[in-house]
Amino acid sequence: MTLNGWLQLILYFVVLIALAKPLGAFMARVYEGQSTRLDRISGPLERLIYRLSGVNPQAEMNWKTYALALLLFNLFGLIAVYLLQRLQGALPLNPQGLGAVSPDSSFNTAVSFTSNTNWQGYAGETTMSYLTQMLGMTVQNFVSAATGMAIVVALIRGLRAAPPLATGGIEGVGNFWVDLTRTTLYILLPLALILAVVLVSQGVVQNFNSYQTVLLLQATVDGNGNAVTQQVLPMGPAASQIAIKQLGTNGGGFFNVNSAHPFENATPLSNFLEMLSILLIPAALCYTFGKMVKDTRQGWALLTAMTVVFAVMTLIAVGAEQNGNPAFTPMGVDQTASELQSGGNMEGKEVRNGIVNSVLWASATTVASNGSVNSMHDSYTPIGGFVLLFNIQMGEVIFGGVGSGLYGMLIFAIIAVFIAGLMVGRTPEYLGKKIEAFEMKMASIGILVMPLTVLVGTAIGVLTTGGLATIYNTTPAPHGFSEVLYAFTSAGNNNGSAFAGLGANTLFYNTALGVAMLIGRYWIAIPALAIAGSLAGKKIVPAGPGTLPTHTPLFIVMLIGVVLLVGVLTFIPALALGPFVEQLMMMGQQAGQ
Amino acid sequence: MTIHTHKARSLFDLPILKRALIDSLKKLKPRNQVRNPVMFVVFVGSILTTGLFIQALLGQGEAPTGFIGAVSLWLWFTVLFANFAEAMAEGRGKAQADSLRKARRDIHAKKLAEPRPGAKVEPVSASTLRKGDMVLVEAGDFIPMDGEAVEGVASVDESAITGESAPVIRESGGDRSAVTGGTRVLSDWLIVRITSNPGETFLDRMISMVEGAKRQKTPNEIALNILLAAMTIIFLLATVTLLPFSIYSVNAAGQGTPVTVTVLVALLVCLIPTTIGGLLSAIGIAGMDRMIQANVIAMSGRAVEAAGDVDVLLLDKTGTITLGNRQATAFLPADGVRVEDLADAAQLASLSDETPEGRSIVVLAKEQYNLRGRDIHLLGANFVPFTAQTRMSGVNFDGRQIRKGAADAIEKYVSDRGGIFPATVRAAVDNIAKEGATPLVVADGQKTLGVIHLKDIVKGGIKERFAELRRMGIKTVMITGDNPLTAAAIAAEAGVDDFLAQATPETKLKLIREQQTGGRLVAMTGDGTNDAPALAQADVAMAMNTGTQAAKEAGNMVDLDSNPTKLIEVVEIGKQLLMTRGALTTFSIANDVAKYFAIIPAAFATTYPVLNKLNIMGLATPQSAILSAVIFNALIIVALIPLALRGVRYRPVGAAQVLRDNLLIYGLGGLIAPFLGIKLIDMILVALKLS
Amino acid sequence: MRSQLRPALASLALLTVLTGLVYPLIVTGIAQIVFPQQAQGSLIVKDGKAIGSELIGQSFDDPQYFWGRLSATEPFPYNAAASSGSNYGPLNPALLEMVQGRVAALKAADPDNTQPIPVDLVTASGSGLDPHISPAAAEYQVARVARRRGLDVSTVRQLVAQHTEGRDLAVLGEPRVNVLELNLALDATASK
After folding, report:
1. I need a surface site. Which of A151, A165, A238, A303 has the fewest CB within 10 A?
2. Contact (CB<8Å) B519/A576
């Protein structure tokens, strides 16, 4: 890597960590119901929403009511997105006259956006009307993110709650409607508004025009030998949607190639900001967590664990991509990095981003369950692709989705605390709350979701003709396997990125991945809320020398170890048959030359 | 500290070993296996591979017959080894139970019509006795059932229960009235009121505890079982899906054959946490066993586990922190009083005082001032015993009224009679109290004679013990009836964290509740009937075997040695129990990495020969690689039985350091050990031409 | 359950209006006032007609033009209405064939050029619309373009330098050459 490459990486980490604290502190104020600078604007809107929805913002919910409210809200959202797609032909704001989306694709997309996965089985510019993009995609980008953040806040409240005696007998975890509304009004909307305008300044389009036809400087020919003299440039309200898809770890792009598209991500600066937005809220939430449990060290510990894993994984991938494709070398192709070119494996990557910004984005979007891309993951080297796959397979807890990443990480922390607690000879406790059979049951259910959706899904995919039919890279065999594995990994962990060669807009994949996304989201969310409820009813054991501290380097190492080990042990056989074999094949070829 | 007598059985006692071998076969019953989800998976896998082996014998094998047979055989061994571990742990308890049972033979009892000596005696069988019956036990008789002495005093041999051969005194009234069925009266006689029905006696409960018959899973064990079950399901999914993955790979790559079921079962068994799964119940039983070796009978496994979590230890000062007896060490006369006169008065007042303190005053007076003890009856003196109201004792003779007692009681006594309590005496009293000693003031009528300095003797080594506890994160609270000043001084000398002075049963109970409301787990010891409410409230309550029946019933463990300091040992055993589980879980999971390296390249050797680059151990053939992993997986269970039974070594250091050390030993060790072990087994297989 | 129905429906409706209509409209309003050029797609207008976007590449295979990245869009390269990458895996024979084809085309257009070929010139971009090549890829083609157009190498090199963008804020991204703008400038130079 060049010196500039290192500089860019370091700059990214420094800015990210520097922003985590102020934003995290602000979010803590929002969730504690304290006054903020946005009260003058957001306050009246907030109260209006409560009044019109018949919500009493003071009412505490127990975890079951909270979960019910959340599920109902998501269900209605899912139905709305489905109907919008099916009916868009008859609805306004459709300058291209795009027709109804197929039922299976509509289902897949509706699940995808309500579950904060934002897997795209479709190509935006040729499928979705402006109205669908706005009322369907953009809205769910906000509220699915807000849903995730609401859940983690509920869990944090459970972790720090005094026993129910002190709170009037309700083992309350907050009020879902309040958390949803405040997250949207105070956090997501202001950030998205700022980012959207900055993105426009960089060249990201924002209009309601129909697609723009331009003349080509040099005519070209299409596949059938017909002359092509024009280029049709897609338009639309892209910036407003892109801002929130990055901030809310959604990732569903306005255009087919997502943030590789110059209209979605025009310059290195827009690239930096979009990339920063991927991890901004997940990182800041760690600080919010620390602030809310009144021990910021706890938040820093989680953030450190996440950052360390992310940095290491990123460096591995940057190294692999920068090394390039050994098969090109004998053709006289120069892949070395210099001041004049970024070199490396440039297949599927943009020149303005080069290797470092492509891989840093790819790594960030996979550790977070964002799933937006600025380069094509399918064309990564085997080790580069392995990093992206494994980033997701760690369960989307290294930063992870907004909210969902942190509650996933807290579930892992509970497991780490449990094993560590046994090893020091004391019933485990996290932040003074005893971790007992019920918490372990829920945490276990949480970690079971991964092998279930990913491994079973992939098994079905590679056994059925429906699954096999649309594998794109059939040679070499392991890469085709990786495509299917990646699809289910991405869906089951609500990431949304893809080895995009796989043709996923088919009945089989729309259905199978849709189901995987549903399971992947709610199978963890509900147990997380159950843990919140159970912990809320427990006494806080004061810490002493016999208590295992959960903010020390030792615990961070332990936590990283548990996350890695669960991922490794679950997926090593599958990874062996995908990227590992492919890498060994690549090394074999190299040796053979 | 106690000297443990006969209970320290060697880890591999021959008869226990023999019985365990037979039991491990008996435990193959499916009903037994299904209770442990991890081992049940191995059990099913063994049956499955046996079926495949038979199929292969019939010429339909999916792999070479010898290979399937070998895998199948070692899977059965894995099951048997786990059974063996459990049987070994149980065997130790059973041996203990056998010796206890000998004490429970049917005894002829002398039932009394009414509770007085000389009442009509009816000989009956002990098994017909019921709660409330009265029996007479004379020298040479066995006590037929648990009960309470209502009359008489006797020396009793309780070695059948406690293992302690020295006889103990049992007498009616007071805190030494409880007698246990199966023990034998050596001299004198007792009238005993039976306090339990047949089958519910202490001995019965003890037998069922040590046998593990009523062993229920403890909360932590349940939580761990859930985690292990989840891991098992994960590995089950990871292995089962490998078959479709393999079929795809074979089809897409156009070479090789899909992975066999035998290999998949082998992989599954290697991956699921069999090491901890196989040893889990053994660890629990062994924990109880270690309690028994410490001569403590826990009424439930839950109590043992809770002991490891204790945050606060309530310890009685007397007998636990200090030697039972305070001793008089000096006489400090008031102004104008000769020290000999003070000593003389003090001795007179103490002649009839049979408490150790009283006796020590007599002795001190004799030693320092050559005052011989006199017979109180010859003096025609009247002894005035101690009462809770007066808080004084003394004698009345020759018109003298000599009293000794607490300073404020004497002050009141003196001033009531128009005397004055001299300031110098007050100063001396305060000084003594500040030193942690007990001042006893002596007065003759209205005249204050001076002060006796009674010193508490803190037990040797106790301070270090408390420092250890502090490092473990356990707070010690001293409970004493002394005034706060005295208590503070002794607390400082003994190094406890806190103290409760002028304790009453009510303040004790209140303290426990306060601590519990704060989320802390409280442990305490007790022996008296007035301790019972506090014992019932405490999370870990150890009653002394010498204590009253009420105390023993309120507690959740009984110390047969009646040594309150034992509580510290119990805490360690509880911690050790959890640590052993945690360590072996970590070890078990860490092992999997090496097993993947052994099995994955082997399983896909025909489809992707290039995967052999991952065979970093250089195992000879795919079959020897898989077999070596399976064999290692089975043998490691046996290799770790001693650790499971003995427990992970416990050191009193902070949690962070314990975690670091155990992670290094069992985490890192668990990562590395199987690489060496599997390679070694592979080399042996090659050498024996079995690969 | 029933008590949560109204909040669920009402909040969804209200948040939809807020985030799905009000928010994009506000962004569009600001964008159209403050950054109208960028918001409309950074169009290059010549004689009142849009002839391309600064941000969207076009296909060039005439040796007198600088060539851009390969494009895998269907049914023709640089089809902006259907962005797409090749999605070829690194060991896919089709990828190697594609690279080989570009290498051969470059060599055919400039047989004497023995420099190693910069990798971005033989690989397809992720979007299929990459407007840039690396300065190295431009330099590789300078001699060919100069010869075909009868221009001095130094003139062409100067044009390349004029259309080379450095890193944003001196750190971010990679130095790059905008192919469409460079080729437009070439045409403008030739016609003098």
Report:
1. A165
2. no
Bridge partners, residue B412, by sequence: none
Question: Would you call A584 an interface residue with chain B, using a CB distance cutoff of 8 Å?
Answer: yes
Q: What is the mean pLDDT of chain B?
A: 86
Domain count, chain A: 1
Mean pLDDT of B223-237: 94
For A472-504, letters b (16+ CB in 10 Å) and e give bbeebbbbbbbbbbbbbbbbbbbbbbbbbbbeb
Q: Cis (ω within 30 of 0) for the bond into A476? A: yes
**Distance, CA of B265 to CA of B267 (rounded, Å):** 5
Tokens 């049914």 -> residue: C75
Question: Which residue carries 């156009």 as its tokens?
Answer: B254
Q: What is the end-to-end Cα distance of chain B in Å, rounded?
A: 56
| Shortest distance, CA B648 to any CA of chain A (angstroms) | 10
Tell me: do C24 and C71 sit in the same domain.
Answer: no
Using alpha carbons, select from A256, A498, A236, A497 the residue that is nearest to residue C127: A256
Domain around A186: 3-592
C-alpha A437/C-alpha B96 separation (Å) is 32
Contact predicate C127/A379, CB 8 Å: no
Half-sphere exposure of A543 (CA within 13 A, CB side): 13
* Catalytic-role residue among B133, B157, B316, B527: B316
DSSP-based three-state secondary structure for B265? helix
* Beta bridge partners of residue A206, listed in sequence order: A237
- Smallest CA–CA distance, residue A180 to chain C, in Å, is 9
Do C17 and C33 fall into the same domain? yes
**Using one digit for the tens of pLDDT, what is the confidence trace for A537-593?**
888 888 777 788 899 999 999 999 999 999 999 999 999 999 999 999 999 876 655
Q: Is B17 left (phi over 0), alpha (psi -120 to 50) or beta?
A: alpha
DSSP letter at A60 equals -
Helix (H/G/I), strand (E/B), else coil: B394:
strand
Give the C-alpha separation, C138 to C156, whole Å.
10
Residue range of the domain that includes C2: 1-40
DSSP structure string for A195-213:
HHHHHHHHT--B--PPPEE
What's phi and psi for B658, nearest 5 deg? -60, -45
pLDDT tens digits, A4-62? 999 999 999 999 999 999 999 999 999 999 999 999 999 999 999 999 999 999 999 99
Tokens of A63: 């975890």
Could you confirm whether B316 is annotated as catalytic? yes
Q: Any idea which residue has 């079973």 for tokens?
A: A456
- Does C34 share its domain with C47? no
- Taking CB atoms and an 8 Å limit, are A197 and C168 in contact across chains? no
- For residue C49, the tally of other CB atoms under 10 A from its CB is 11
What is the number of H-type helices and E-type strands within chain C?
A: 7, 6
pLDDT (tens digit per residue) in C10-47: 999 999 999 999 999 999 999 999 999 999 999 999 98
| Cβ within 8 Å, pair C88-A501 | yes
Domain count along chain C:
2
Among B38, B229, B189, B163, CA closest to B560: B163
The span from the first CA to the last CA of chain C, in angstroms, equals 77
**Helix axis angle, B462-472 relative to B566-603, nearest 10°?**
40
- Answer whether A257's CB lies under 8 Å from C84's CB: yes
Cα gap A388→A391, rounded to integer Å:
5
ipTM at complex level: 0.96
Q: What span, in angstroms and rounded, lies between the C-alpha atoms of B509 and B497?
A: 19
Of A409, A575, A395, nearest to A494 by C-alpha is A395
C118 shares a domain with C80: yes
C161 to chain A, any CB pair closer than 8 A? The answer is: no
Bridge partners of B439, per DSSP, are B453
The answer for residues whose C-beta is within 8 angstroms of residue B256's C-beta and 6 or more apart is B249, B250, B604, B605, B606, B607, B608
Q: Do A425 and B582 touch (CB under 8 A)?
A: yes
Q: Are residues C149 and C134 in the same domain?
A: yes
